[in-house]
Amino acid sequence: MDNYIRNGMILMCTSLTYENSQGDHFLSRTMDFAFELGGQPIFMPRNQKIQGDAGAFTTKYGFVGAGRNLKHYIFVDGVNEFGLGAAALYFSEYAKYVKEAAADKLGIAPHDLVAWVLGNAKSVADLRELIQNVQLVDVPVSLLGLTTPLHFIFSDPTGETTVLEATSDDLHLIDDPVGVMANSPQLSWHLQNLSTYGTLVASQRPLHNYEGFELATQGPGTGALGMPGDYTSPSRFVRTVFNKHYSEPAADTPTTLNLLQHLMDSVTIPKGVKLKDDGASDYTQYRGYMALDDRAYYMEPYDNQELQGVKMTDKMLNEWDTPVEYPLDHQVHINQLN
């Protein structure tokens, strides 16, 4: 479990859930990494046998998400045919995995868990029961040559949102009351840390006169003075909760996706502004958006901010039996008006 530290592979991501005014639910995430992951949207049909790195497992349900074929398909986020969404984020220094699964448990490699969940659980409630029979095994992913320390966020069309943090051999889901997740430390720490910023508001704060001196206003935005602006996990968590809470409600799917893009802007990392010790740049390689009620997945790569989506259809679910990869368009799109 120390390999990812020695190799400097520190993945920083942010995720949030959202319910629009029509009652539709969404899960979105940034994928921040220095190593080029090369992910793209992939549709995984029903009833697949996947030769995972900790052993083979089967799936029952179809799903679509961001992944890559590395001897077998590995997914880091996605949504299934019942609207269950999932995303994996780095959990450095806190994730603990077993060396070998117990005889009465199914052993899953951490990087294979998203595919297993989306292929076998209908909802968060369903997953609460299923996850009790699973253990995460300390097995490296071939692309990186290391075991990835991960935690996971799950949400479904009921709005229930939970987090899975593998800090012991037995796995269980933790309720996420704010529907936001970043990286280390644990969710409980982030929720406690929110109290430090609990007085932040969207409105302008009134100024007080000191010693008879009338202070000049700094204008709108003073209610958020003190909100952290760096790219650390605690700061990204606080900013995302604040912006999610105070943003104007979105009505339909297009306006919700547009809002989520804006919410993700505050935690999106441009190339070059966050460097590792070896000089490599962690940056937001893509942003993923899961429309849970629509059973649709949208991907927004770094070099093309146009949403590129795949929506599961009954034909895909009932008739297709082979995974389908959807190459991304990485060309910058400019709408010239003259």
UniProtKB/TrEMBL annotation:
It comes from Levilactobacillus paucivorans. Transmembrane segments: none annotated. Residues 13-320 form the Choloylglycine hydrolase/NAAA C-terminal domain. Keywords: Hydrolase. The keyword Hydrolase applies. Pfam families: CBAH. GO terms for molecular function: hydrolase activity. Gene3D superfamilies: Penicillin V Acylase, Chain A. Belongs to the peptidase C59 family. This is Conjugated bile salt hydrolase-like protein. The keyword Hydrolase applies. It comes from the Bacteria.
